[in-house]
Write a structure and sequence with these properties.
The complex is a heterodimer of chains A (514) and B (348). With 514 residues, chain A is α+β, with helices and mostly antiparallel strands. Among the domains of chain A are: 45 residues; 87 residues, Elongation Factor Tu (Ef-tu), domain 3 (Beta Barrel), CATH 2.40.30; 218 residues, MetI-like fold (Orthogonal Bundle), CATH 1.10.3720.10. Chain A is 53% helix and 14% strand. Chain A has 18 helices and 10 strands. The longest helix of chain A is centred in the first third of the chain and has 43 residues. The relative contact order of chain A is 0.09. Chain B folds into 2 domains: 153 residues, Periplasmic binding protein-like II (D-Maltodextrin-Binding Protein, domain 2), CATH 3.40.190; 168 residues, 3-Layer(aba) Sandwich (D-Maltodextrin-Binding Protein, domain 2). Classes of the chains: A alpha+beta (514), B alpha/beta (348). At the A-B interface, helix 10 and strand 10 of A face helix 1, helix 2, strand 2 and helix 11 of B. Strand 10 of chain A pairs antiparallel with strand 2 of chain B.
Chain lengths: 514, 348
């Protein structure tokens, strides 16, 4: 050991200049740490903002609204053949008794248009639960059954408070209605302070004698209005002023439907429950029926095909290139190409899939099989690169030790190097798969961007994938699909968290130190 | 050797899957085509699925892409029907004939309006097609009659009655069927309203076509992508901007945006159905007659689509935003569909 400090210069570490330099270095370090913390904080802030936003938007999609009512199971409707057989009941008309019951609860819907509006409160498949209930217990035919009927998406949005706010105030004095139905006048009212009665203004209604009147004009203490729900009688009575804050022109539900839903809410027949349907149904054009299961299983089958294909091929390629291949210009060329392939935009793989798998091999369109093949091509370079890095990280002493006790080259690699490299290979694979899970572009070209209702039961059934489902729902005009889109994003994120969690678990479980 | 076993097992599984799929006949209807017709065809498909049998698969590929797939040939590898937001072109029809798709049945299902809309907080717009053309064309004839780059910066430069705001229009990209329809319905007729261009049409119709088909690229017109919801969101954020999209988006988002009056017609359901709002286009579904009986359910699909409960006045498609055909025309479409009368060359 030689003394490298110059004998000519003397360093006085206690001098002021030296102390100042030390302080400066400490300050620089403190600043750097602060930058680091700020960067992480910034990233965390964005992540929290993103997730909060998505969760907030998705929340309505996880609950669903039902009408819990007593419906008479009229035999003439639900048992058309009259023999009580399963076939007869399955073909029965379950809408009719439910609609009749609803009309009882909400009197006044007498003309055809009003009837149709009333029926539109119920989902087009709303009475399926009622049917299943009767099919389970056929003795119920002819009795009155307590059942649950699914509400339509627009009604559901109102129940969740997303259509309009309803503000109720007590009115001064008493009003005298001129009739109980149709267009009536209400006399004795104080002047109402409202901006107007057009469809662009908040709707003004009066509740009196058990009925609802929509106000369309006022003059000298006389209010003119249309009856939305019939009044009991024309006696002077106390009244309440109700305002629907969102104007009628600005929402999907008309005033009449809002009145009905408000009445049903007050009758206590609307209940909300967890939306299991979202996890058990395929896609649908009716927002209240649409579910994620089709896309979820499509993604699972696609990932399965991808994994089965690219793990063995990728690892075999990595082992050969890393351990066996001679170093010459051919292997160099292959290596450069693999690195380039990892950076090729994913849509190119979609075009390749279209040309090769669909047009040349004639595989079926829109299937997880083709999706998996295309994504396998996409992930393969990532897996090869990660596996080679993992193999290279195994210390040479392990290899040399195995060779030293007489193992063949292949035995040394398969028995000793590969098991030690496995955690790294698996991590690389799962991260590659997580990347593939989020891909939409290549699936676009092989027909997986499609409306598919049936939940796929195998890799050759038509299917979509989770990110594609998000894209499709985000493009639909119905307001309720916005919440579905956010909910699908949460499902995709959970899927990703589980995959990444698995990667961490495998690494911890099999990690070996030497 | 564990690894080798795993590899061979994987290869075996995969080859079985591939072989099994290759031999499979199709028992599910496949529909491709326009994204504008997609919301309607999917609703029909779902109804068909509920009635029993497999729900048809509907893919959104765009009208042109759909036609290409549809006309590629006959057999289970090719789709059974395609959605179109415009009529089939002569060239596409010839392509079909060439590939053996000889019997194509045309179903006209209804109308879609194209609206020019802005935020509720923006000014009310009353436009004519010629004004829209002047706002969006790349080149306009100058005082000397020669074509020059579009000089208009503000709406009020075109006509004093329009607001003094920068021209900023968000619209569909060139790949979109909405864009094609917008060009034909607004830009073409709008160009005819400019005297110098009317003369040009007589003298050189190709040069005229080029004028109305070119939309300015100096920033006044912004390609907003295929997602109409995105345009609605951008309009809401920027009251000065104007957007172009399908009528159903105006209907669904009536709380945020309002439609401009074009040539005296306001974009409402009634006006589009009656034809007094001129910026509307017919929507079509084309069926491959040769697949009836080969792929189960094609005839049922047609039956469901033209049924009164679907495309009728109060059908479920009208609640999805489709504007129904007038009663007479609908009767003709239904008759045509029942007879499965294929399109002939004389139709063009």
């Amino acid at each position: 050991m030689t003394d490298i400090s110059s004998p000519n210069r003397v360093f006085d570490v206690t001098s002021d200049a030296a102390r100042a330099r030390v302080r400066k270095r400490y300050r620089a370090e403190a600043r750097f740490r602060a930058y680091g913390i700020a960067a992480i904080g910034f990233a965390a802030l964005f992540l929290v903002a993103l997730i909060t936003d998505v969760v907030y938007r998705a929340a309505p999609a996880f609950t669903t609204s039902w009408l819990s009512i007593e419906v008479p199971a009229t035999p003439s409707d639900i048992d058309p053949k009259g023999d009580g057989s399963v076939e007869s009941i399955a073909s029965g008309n379950f809408d009719a008794p439910v609609r009749a019951r609803l009309a009882e609860l909400l009197p006044g819907a007498n003309d055809r248009v009003a009837r149709r509006q009333l029926n539109a409160l119920i989902s087009s498949s709303g009475t399926e639960g009622f049917r299943d209930q009767i099919l389970r217990d056929r003795d119920l035919v002819g009795k009155t059954v307590n059942t649950r009927v699914l509400l339509s998406d627009d009604a559901d949005l109102f129940v969740k408070g997303q259509a309009t706010d309803v503000v109720e105030r007590a009115g001064a004095g008493q009003l005298t209605p001129s009739g109980t139905e149709g267009t009536i006048t209400l006399s004795g009212a104080p002047p109402l302070r409202v901006s107007g009665f057009a469809s662009a203004d908040p709707s003004t209604l009066v509740r009196i004698s058990g009925g609802w009147v929509k106000i369309t004009g006022q003059q000298d203490g006389v209010l003119t209005g249309d009856v939305m729900m019939p009044l009991r009688d024309t006696a002077a009575a106390d009244w309440k002023l109700v305002t629907f804050e969102t104007s009628e022109g600005s929402r999907r539900l008309g005033d009449r439907e809002v009145v009905w839903l408000q009445t049903l809410t007050e009758q206590g027949v609307i209940e909300r429950s967890f939306n299991w349907r979202f996890f058990t149904n395929g896609d649908s054009r009716e927002a209240e029926l649409a579910g994620i299961l089709g896309a979820l299983s499509g993604s699972l089958f696609t990932m399965m095909i991808t994994l089965v294909l690219c793990l063995p091929t990728g690892v075999a390629a990595a082992i050969y290139l890393q351990e066996f291949a001679p170093k010459n210009k051919w292997t160099d060329l292959i290596e450069v190409n693999i690195n380039n392939l990892a950076a090729v935009p994913s849509i190119i793989f979609g075009l390749l899939g279209l040309a090769v798998f669909l047009n040349f091999f004639g595989l079926p369109r829109s299937t997880p099989l083709v999706g998996g093949l295309v994504l396998a091509l996409l992930v393969l370079p990532t897996i090869i690169i990660a596996s080679r890095a993992a193999l290279a990280a195994v210390p040479p002493s392990i290899r040399e030790g195995a060779l030293g006790v007489g193992a063949s080259h292949q035995q040394a690699i398969f028995h000793h190097v590969l098991p030690l490299a496995m955690p790294g290979i698996l991590t690389g694979t799962i991260i590659g798969m997580a990347h593939a899970l989020g891909e939409t572009a290549p699936l676009l070209l092989i027909g997986m961007v499609a409306f598919i209702v049936d939940v796929p039961s195998g890799p050759t059934d038509a299917a979509t994938a989770l990110p594609v489902q998000i894209y499709l729902w985000s493009d639909l005009p119905e307001a309720a699909f916005a919440a579905k889109t956010a909910a699908a994003i949460i499902v995709l994120l959970l899927f990703l968290f589980i995959m990444n969690g698995l990667a961490i678990f495998l690494r911890r479980r099999f990690e070996r130190r030497w | 050797m564990k690894f080798a076993t795993f590899t061979s097992a994987a290869a075996l599984v995969l080859s079985t899957v591939v072989l099994a799929s290759g031999a499979q006949a199709r028992d599910q209807i496949r529909v491709v085509g326009s994204s504008t017709v997609y919301p309607f065809t999917t609703a029909v498909a779902e109804q068909l699925g509920k009635a029993g049998g497999k729900t048809p698969v509907v893919e959104s590929t765009g009208t042109g892409g759909g036609m290409k797939l549809f006309c590629a040939g006959v057999g289970v590898d090719h789709p059974d029907a395609t959605n179109a937001s415009r009529r089939i072109k002569k060239s596409e029809f010839d392509d079909c004939q060439k590939n053996g798709v000889t019997d194509v049945v045309e179903l006209k299902i209804g109308f879609d309006g194209i609206v020019i809309a802005n935020s509720k907080s923006g000014p009310d717009l009353t436009l004519t097609k010629t004004q829209v053309f002047q706002a969006l064309a790349r080149e306009l004839p100058g005082a000397d009659g020669k074509l020059a780059p579009n000089p208009y910066k503000n709406w009020s430069d075109i006509d004093a009655s329009l607001p003094n705001e920068k021209i900023e229009v968000l619209g569909p990209p060139p790949t979109s069927g909405t864009r094609d329809a917008f060009l034909e319905l607004v830009m073409e007729t709008g160009a005819e309203g400019v005297p110098a261009l009317k003369d040009l049409k007589k003298a050189d119709s190709k040069a005229f076509d080029k004028v109305w088909k070119s939309i300015r690229e100096d920033g006044a017109y912004i390609d907003a992508g295929e997602n109409d919801n995105l345009i609605v969101q951008k309009l809401e954020a920027n009251p000065k901007a104007v957007g172009i999209f399908g009528y159903s988006f105006l209907e669904e988002n009536a709380s945020k945006i309002k439609g401009a009056t074009v040539d005296g017609g306001t974009p409402t359901f009634e006006n589009i159905a009656s034809g007094s709002y001129k910026v509307s286009r017919p929507l079509f579904v084309y069926i491959k007659k040769q697949h009836v009986g080969v792929v189960p359910g094609v005839d049922k699909f047609v039956e469901e689509y033209v049924s009164d409960k679907a495309i009728g006045e109060d059908g479920y498609l009208s609640s999805k935003g489709l504007i129904p055909l007038p009663a007479e025309e609908r009767t003709k479409v239904v008759e045509n569909a029942k007879a499965m009368k294929p399109l002939g060359a004389e139709a063009f």
